[in-house]
């Protein structure tokens, strides 16, 4: 069995569905509480002796919830399962220590962290990488080739067949250098401050309902919400006309939307380049949207 959560981005759900179709393995899903935190009180109901792999997001891209990875990893260790963490929303927003998380694999998308498109990062335990077979064949990933067989280069080169995207790799390095210079602790502190202010301002609007933990310490720099009277897509269109960029929709997390009982949410995402004035502009644009719809 492979254990996931109901909060997963489609990119950490669909591949495992394909695996299940091809191998017959069973997928199980850890549920959430009313504030979008994973239910860790009964993990033995999900993670059992049948569990081979636990796959979970470090942070929910739709709720902002920072998940209790280590708690779940401990449950996985108890039954001998491996742990894969989707860090697309974790790595950009604060310090990451894979030893503290106690995971076996950690992946993230650089374009979520000031980097380029078209390249990804995977950290994994070296012993596991050495055991794994290449998933692509081609130049540069071989040690020796004959007509009968080939042998593979060492880690990580056996997983990097063909000509790499050099420009993307350079851009990735530049983005990492920039964030290290800023300090990931500073990034995290800034996000907590601005998301705390955003939640305070949104709470002033009686027609707004937001999702995820109420404690800013338990979320990254995003807030998902709905207006009681305006569809998120309409809301997004109007605030865009006022120079405010939010995302509206299911956020590539349709099962989570179903779990929340909504078809879509609006999501305001804050990062190192945002300040309190951006929050104020968001609030003003939400009030303007009410006027547009005669509310």
UniProtKB/TrEMBL annotation:
<protein>
    <recommendedName>
        <fullName>cysteine desulfurase</fullName>
        <ecNumber>2.8.1.7</ecNumber>
    </recommendedName>
</protein>
<dbReference type="GO" id="GO:0030170">
    <property type="term" value="F:pyridoxal phosphate binding"/>
</dbReference>
<dbReference type="InterPro" id="IPR010970">
    <property type="entry name" value="Cys_dSase_SufS"/>
</dbReference>
<dbReference type="GO" id="GO:0031071">
    <property type="term" value="F:cysteine desulfurase activity"/>
</dbReference>
<dbReference type="Pfam" id="PF00266">
    <property type="entry name" value="Aminotran_5"/>
</dbReference>
<keyword id="KW-0663">Pyridoxal phosphate</keyword>
<dbReference type="InterPro" id="IPR000192">
    <property type="entry name" value="Aminotrans_V_dom"/>
</dbReference>
<dbReference type="GO" id="GO:0006534">
    <property type="term" value="P:cysteine metabolic process"/>
</dbReference>
<dbReference type="InterPro" id="IPR015424">
    <property type="entry name" value="PyrdxlP-dep_Trfase"/>
</dbReference>
<dbReference type="InterPro" id="IPR015421">
    <property type="entry name" value="PyrdxlP-dep_Trfase_major"/>
</dbReference>
<keyword id="KW-0808">Transferase</keyword>
<dbReference type="InterPro" id="IPR015422">
    <property type="entry name" value="PyrdxlP-dep_Trfase_small"/>
</dbReference>
<feature type="domain" description="Aminotransferase class V">
    <location>
        <begin position="1"/>
        <end position="282"/>
    </location>
</feature>
């Amino acid at each position: 069995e492979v254990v996931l959560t109901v909060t997963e981005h489609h990119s950490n759900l669909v591949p495992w569905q394909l695996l299940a179709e091809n191998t017959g393995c069973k997928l199980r899903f850890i549920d959430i509480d009313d504030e979008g935190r994973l239910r860790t009180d009964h993990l033995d109901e999900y993670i059992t002796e049948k569990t081979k792999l636990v796959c979970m997001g470090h942070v929910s891209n739709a709720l902002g919830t920072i998940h209790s990875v280590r708690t779940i990893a401990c449950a996985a260790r108890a039954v001998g399962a491996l742990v894969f963490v989707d860090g697309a929303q974790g790595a950009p927003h604060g310090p990451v220590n894979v030893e503290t998380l106690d995971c076996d694999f950690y992946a993230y998308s650089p374009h979520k962290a000031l980097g380029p498109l078209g390249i990804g990062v995977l950290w994994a335990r070296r012993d596991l990488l050495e055991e794994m077979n290449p998933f692509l064949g081609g130049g540069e990933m071989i040690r020796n080739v004959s007509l009968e067989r080939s042998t593979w280069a060492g880690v990580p080169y056996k997983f990097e067949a063909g000509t790499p995207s050099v420009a993307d790799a350079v851009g990735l390095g530049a983005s990492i250098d920039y964030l290290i210079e800023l300090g990931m602790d500073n990034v995290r502190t800034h996000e907590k401050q601005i998301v705390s202010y955003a939640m305070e301002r949104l709470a002033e609007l009686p027609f707004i309902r937001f999702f995820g933990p109420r404690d800013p310490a338990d979320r990254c720099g995003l807030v998902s919400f709905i207006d009681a009277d305006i569809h998120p897509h309409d809301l997004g269109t109007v605030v865009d006309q006022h120079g405010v960029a939010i995302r509206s929709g299911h956020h590539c997390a349709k099962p989570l939307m179903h779990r929340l009982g909504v078809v879509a949410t609006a999501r305001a995402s804050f990062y190192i380049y945002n300040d309190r004035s951006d929050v104020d502009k968001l609030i003003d644009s939400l009030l303007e949207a009410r006027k547009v719809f005669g509310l």
